[in-house]
Amino acid sequence: MGQQGIELTGAPGQVGRIELPRGFELGVATAAYQIEGAVDEGGRGPSIWDTFSHTPGRIVGGDNGDVACDHYHRYAEDVRLMGDLGVDSYRLSVAWPRIQPEGRGAANPGGFAFYDRLVDALLEKGIAPAVTLYHWDLPQALEDGGGWRNRDTAARFAEYAALVHDHLGDRVRRWITLNEPWCSSFLGYASGRHAPGAQEGEGALAAAHHLLLGHGLAVTALRAGAREGQQVGITLNLQPVSAATSSAQDVAASERALLGANLLFTDPLLEGRYPDLARQTYASLTDFGFLHDGDLATIAAPLDFLGVNYYFPSRVRAAPYVQDDPALRTADDLGAEDVISPGEELTAMGWPVEPAGLTRLLEWLRDAYPTLPPIYITENGRACDDVVTPGGQVDDPDRVRYLDSHLRAVVDAIDAGVDVRGYYCWSLMDNFEWAEGYAKRFGLVHVDYTTQQRTPKASFNWFRSLIADQHGRDGRDG
Ligand code: FCB
C-alpha cells in the first residue's frame, strides 16, 4: 500500500520526477518545545507554553510538552535518522528559557551544553543546522512583565539572540530570528488559542509590533558579530488570500484578511511601513502609539532570505463581527471568515489541500515586493491519521502526495521566476502540536509516545529517495 502510494505520486527516478534546480536544499524542521521534553533539566526555566499547557482546558487531551519526543535525551538517535534521510539542513529552534531561564542576564551554561551536543552531532553527519531563535517559548518571567505587549521584550530578545549567536555562530550559518510572529501575536494575544492565551485588541497589535522590533534589533545584533557565510532571515506563515465571491462585501473582507494574515508583517519587514489599511482597520483599537520614531527602519533591516511557511490558502467571505462594539474587539475580529468548499480535500487538521496556493503565494510575494530576498520554504507538510500496522509499518500515501505536489508547486514558482533556494518539510517526527496536543501527527517519522519508539513512515523513504536523486544530479554524495 505504501509502495503503491509512492509509485502513484511519482517517486524520483520514476514517472514524474521533480525537477528541482541544482543546489536546491532539502531539509526537515522541528521546534524545541514540540520535541525536547526535559523541561526541568539543564537549568531551564519555565516558558509561557509550560504555563499554558498545564492550565486545564487549554490543550486537547490535557497534553503538555514535559516529555514530548524526549529529544533532549534521544537527540543522537534523531540525528542518525536525519543522516539516514540524507537532508542537507535541519531547522531546529533554541529554547530561550534554556539559555536565559528568567529571560535576561548571563547565559546558562547547561542550556548551551545541550545545543553544543546537538549541533556538533549534526555537523559530524554533514547536516547544516538552521537555527530559529524564537519558536514561541517566551520565558514566563518576561510574560509576567507584560510579554510581547511590553516594548522591553524586544530588547530582551535581541540580547538573547546575541548570546546564542556568540556561542553557536562559529558552527551555525543560517539564522531565523522569529517563527511566525502572526501566531505569537494573534493566536497568543487575540484569539487566545496559544500561549499566553490572551484575548485583546491593542495588546495583540502591540505584540505584533514588538515582535517585529525584536526581530530588527536581533538582525542588527547578528550583523554586528557577523561570521563568514552567515545568512539572517525571518520565517512568516503566509497565505494567498482571495475573496470567495466578487461581491463588494466579500472583497472588502478579503482585503482585511490579507492585511491581518500577511501585510501587517510583510509591509514593515520588506518596505518599512505599515499599510494605510492597518490604521483604518484597527482605528477603534489603537492609535499605534507603540510605534516609535526609527522603529520601521530597524524592522526593515535588509534580510538575506525570507522563510515562508505554507500550509493552506485562505478564501474569505464577509461575516458578522464577533463583538458589535468596535472598541471591544480582539485584533483578529475582522468581519471575515474562511470558506471551505464542499468536497475539498482536508488534512487531519481540517486544513484544505491546495498546492497551487503555494505557487500563487510565491508569485504574489514577487509581484508585491520588489526588494524580496531569496526564499526558503521553512515549513510545509500535513497531518494524517497515521497508524502503525501490525507489521510495524506506517503507510502515509496522503502525506507523500501532499509533499510531492507542494514541491512541484515550488518548481512552478521557480519556473515563473521566483528565487526559492530550499524546502524544509514539517516535520522530522510527530510532536506536540501546540493546542492540538499529540493527536495530530505531522512527522516523516512516527513516534510512539508510550515507548518513544521512532518508526520511519513511507513518506520518510519517499523523501530519502528524492534527496538522493537531487544529490545525484548535483554531483554530490547521496
Ligand atoms: C506551524 C508551526 C509549527 C507547526 C506547524 C504545523 O504554524 O510553526 O510549529 O506546529 O504549524
How would you characterize this protein structure?
There is one protein chain. By secondary structure, this protein is an alpha/beta fold. Helices cover 40% and strands 14% of the residues. It has helices at residues 2-8, 32-35, 48-53, 71-85, 96-99, 109-124, 140-144, 152-168, 181-189, 202-224, 248-271, 276-281, 295-299, 355-368, 397-415, 458-474; strands at residues 25-29, 89-93, 128-134, 174-179, 231-237, 241-243, 305-309, 314-318, 336-338, 375-379, 420-426, 445-448, 453-456. Strands 1-2-3-4-5-7-10-11 form an eight-stranded parallel β-barrel, surrounded by five helices. Strands 6-8-9 form a three-stranded mixed sheet, with helices on one face. Strand 10, helix 15 and strand 11 (420-426) form a beta-alpha-beta unit. Residues 1-15 have low confidence and may be disordered. Beta-D-fucopyranose binds next to loops.
List keywords for this structure.
40% helix; eight-stranded parallel β-barrel; binds beta-D-fucopyranose; 13 strands; alpha/beta; single chain; 478 residues
What is the topological layout?
Elements: H1 2-8, E1 25-29, H2 32-35, H3 48-53, H4 71-85, E2 89-93, H5 96-99, H6 109-124, E3 128-134, H7 140-144, H8 152-168, E4 174-179, H9 181-189, H10 202-224, E5 231-237, E6 241-243, H11 248-271, H12 276-281, H13 295-299, E7 305-309, E8 314-318, E9 336-338, H14 355-368, E10 375-379, H15 397-415, E11 420-426, E12 445-448, E13 453-456, H16 458-474
Parallel strand pairs: 1-2, 1-11, 2-3, 3-4, 4-5, 5-7, 6-8, 7-10, 10-11
Antiparallel strand pairs: 8-9, 12-13
Helix pairs in contact: 1-15, 4-6, 8-10, 9-10, 14-15
Bound molecules: beta-D-fucopyranose (FCB).
